[in-house]
Amino acid sequence: MDPCGDWIHVIQVESTGSGADLRDTADQVSRENVELVRRLYAELASEGSPREFERRFTDETLSAFLDPGIEWIPVAESPLAVDSYRGFDGVRRFWGEFLSAWDRYSVETLELHDAGDQVVVVVHIVGWTHGLEVDETRSSLLTVRDGRIVRVQAFADPEGAREAAGLPP
Question: What whole-number distance in Å separates Cα of residue 108 and Cα of residue 110?
Fold first, then answer.
């Protein structure tokens, strides 16, 4: 069964039958997906220690953005590279490990691109650790289902997520 089968069924029930209605509903869902990702990255951009992050990102807070079965896949070449982090506890573990590597960091969302049930996000990360500055632009591909993010795949290349989504450069 198509993973979006329920979503398509709801659109068909709400539709008056014209193709324009289906496109308008799909466009609205895509805009909502992009806005969901924008809000998540605004939260993630807040500076703080791993302990503050863990305190701030309760299951209740995370459920506003993420599906409880979320899969978070870090950049393959990252020191945090494991196959993936799963569930809210996995997301907290990933971000706790990420934050513990930095004395200070900032994340700025540069671009968001609609790719249907996926959203491409390009971010600029600046961090300081052990007196060294790291300045990188990276991307992630987020999959949204039923108003919640179910998968995040990170790429070291700013074009990696766009390519994975099949979007033109």
Answer: 6
If you search the block for the tokens 């979503």, which residue do you land on? Answer: 7
- Rounded Cα distance between 158 and 142, Å, is 14
Q: How many beta carbons lie within 10 A of that of residue 27, not counting itself?
A: 11
Condensed to tens digits (0 to 9), the pLDDT of residues 3-34 reads: 333 332 222 233 344 444 434 445 677 899 99
| Residue 45 and residue 108 in contact, taking contact as beta carbons nearer than 8 Å | yes
Sign of CA dihedral 44, 157, 133, 91: positive
pLDDT tens-digit readout, 131-153? 899 899 999 999 999 999 999 99
Report d(CA 61, CA 85) in Å as an integer: 18
118-129/104-115 β-pairing: antiparallel
Q: For the segment 27-68, what is each residue's pLDDT rounded down to a tens digit?
A: 677 899 999 999 999 888 776 666 777 788 889 999 999 999
* CA neighbor of 138 nearest in space, from 107, 166, 117: 107
Q: Which domains does the chain have, with CATH numbers?
A: 5-165 (3.10.450.50)
In tens, the pLDDT along 45-54 reads 776 666 777 7
User: Hunting for tokens 């995370």 — which residue is that?
Assistant: 62
